Task: structure prediction
Amino acid sequence: MEYMSLKDHVYNFIVEQINTGKLLPGKKVNENHICEKLKVSRTPVREALIQLSSEGLLDNVPRKGFVIKSLTTEEAKETYFIIGALDGIAASLAAPFLTEKDLKEMEFYIQSIDLAINTENYRMYDKMQEAFHGVYLSICPNKSLVNLLLQLEKKFLMNLGEIGPKDGLKEKLTQTNNEHRTILELFKNKDTAELERFFKEVHWNIDKAEQIPL
Result:
């Protein structure tokens, strides 16, 4: 089993707090609360906060401390553009190595996402869509590219459960999962050129930057 440091525990805790909507954009991170909650000293908490700041999830504001960062629309669109390009390259690099078992696994996750949407189980949606993308990302031979991609995606952590059914959420999630179906077909056909185009121009289309994580 891989050893996890205290800093990693704190890091994962803060990410989970952001992901569940307990820490919202513009709000200060209460370091004392984290120390008490996790029963750790201030050092690993500071280390985790510094890492999250370097990854773009937090702002280190003078005389105020660490604050959950809010992305401007322009920043979000720029990040989507980069993620789309990187995700497309990762998919095209992984495509030749995907087995029949991998493809069936991705199909299972698509069906699980359908179930999550229909039952409004948005925590399950998050886990299943992450698992879907995880199949090909785990196989991609360029690990540096994958690490950079995953780091950028963290900027779009949000809690779908907090959003609920308003703003046509279910329709948007269904559209996204239909895109997963297209991606799966492209993987089956090993169409690397179209995979790159589809990820960049459709799945991570910059006009989606204000909507939902993919």
